[in-house]
Amino acid sequence: MEQGGTVVTTSATVFSEGVNLAYDDEGIGQAFIFQHGLGGDRKQVAEAFGEQPGTRRITLECRGHATSDYGPANALSLATFARDIERMATKLKVDAPILGGISMGAALALRLAVKGNLRPSALVLARPAWLFEPAPPNMAVYAEVGELLLSYEPEIAREIFLQGQSAGQLRREAPDNLASLVGFFERSKPREFGNLLMRIANDDPGVSREEAQRINCPVLVIGHGHDLVHPLAYARELAGVFPNATFCEITAKAVDRTRYVNEFRAALHDFLERLA
User: Fold this and answer.
1) Dihedrals φ, ψ of 82, to 5°?
2) What percent of the chain has pLDDT over 70?
3) pLDDT, position 160
4) Is the pTM of this model over 0.90?
5) Which domains, from first to last, does the chain contain?
6) Distance of CA 247 to the CA centre of its chain
């Protein structure tokens, strides 16, 4: 909403299947449900989104992320997260929104576009980490961190990870990925978070290539290099699947974070301008 010309954020909660989940509702205009990545939160998407005039950004913090509860351990999945988003949208009376997200958020947007009831007007898939198969090889490092958190105390798990082959490769080729993963060892509920990482890393959006090819709304796919978790090749391939897609390559966070944020916001702005 707006107060005195300044956009402010409403932070609230929604109950889904008895689980308490937090969300942000910011701005006025076309509803844009924009989801964070695995291990991320509302701040991740708020930074990348910036202020887009005429757009209402809504972000649910998925189960086990930030201030949202975990709920049953065996219920953690992309399908569950997608159902939670639909319940939030129902509470907010949102229909025909733009759906989007970063990494895991992109997978959720894709699932909702095909399997959900929200009838999206457009899609934004940023730095996709999944195509159409479960447990993609780029997500194996998340499962590795999850297994370590389930097997050791966080300090020991962190040292084992940093001495391993995966961390060495990330240190050389994708330092931003490494920084995110190292931060996971500081979570307040390490075993619960380790289970979440393993379950999501081995999951998939539940959408086939053929189903994705039938999505006719405008689609923006954003990708960048220097990223082993979110391969640029995935973004390019995904953009080629949709009949009405635009692909945008931006500067990697590992190269220049300020340019990454500015170019991400500019890509969104241009896409929203074309929609309008």
Assistant:
1) -65, -40
2) 97
3) 98
4) yes
5) 2-134+204-275 (3.40.50.1820), 135-202 (no CATH)
6) 18
